[in-house]
């Protein structure tokens, strides 16, 4: 196979030595030389300058070296994907998810995943983003799904979608005219918020702080559902994910309060331990998540 010859070429280029490459590949030195010679004949170009002590790539060799590394990486990836097709996906998948993701996005993804991989035992724990972050560090879950900015250099953090935050109020609230409001009109308002440690609460606090807003009074709930219901009952204004309030905005139970010149969005991220071994059930879920969010 051409990949065998490319692997020999890459190994020689990395080692800068034919005999050392031969040892690593369990080949004879003449066998390594034959691979390189055949490759040069096929490409019609000299790939290496060889001296008794050192091997140096030619300009053509440098070009091939970079491309060969890519080809070999793609070949290994293809082999893994094909092996995964042959293997039955079983085992367990445990994950922690923030409230917005766990209650409004994850069920849609899991419905298709469970249908495709019915033998996987799935467990979901829903909590606020800070708690999920600590749980992943403690090794309690395979993966975590959280909202907002994540400062975790010790973990593998992958953004999988953007989430829009919207200011909402009850239909009879003075700000619910449908017209965009200035930040100054949010002075002295009553707010309904999530608890400290929530990814959603971070954005409410940031809007209030950056806008220099005074808060007349605030009510704190430890779930987005509680915040949404309280706002719908006229308790105050709230900043929530559009996912959380989509149905209520469509039905008229809540009204969006656009803020003039401002759009608030945040990242939704997948967390994994850098030491977490590759588990088939986890790899397939990440693949399903990436594919499904594009159609949500």
Structure write-up:
By secondary structure, the protein is an alpha/beta fold. The chain has 2 domains: 2-86, Arc Repressor Mutant, subunit A (Orthogonal Bundle); 91-296, D-Maltodextrin-Binding Protein, domain 2, CATH 3.40.190. The chain is built from 10 helices and 11 strands. The protein has helices spanning 2-15, 18-25, 29-43, 59-86, 99-116, 129-137, 199-210, 224-232, 242-251, 280-293, and strands at 48-50, 55-57, 91-97, 120-126, 143-147, 155-169, 189-194, 215-221, 238-241, 255-256, 264-273. Strands 3, 4, 5, 6, 9, 10 and 11 form a 7-stranded mixed β-sheet that branches. Strands 1-2 form a two-stranded antiparallel ribbon. A hairpin with a 4-residue loop joins strand 1 and strand 2. Helix 2 packs across helix 3 and helix 5 (99-116) packs across helix 10 (280-293). It is elongated and about 85 Å long. The model has no long low-confidence stretch (mean pLDDT 89).
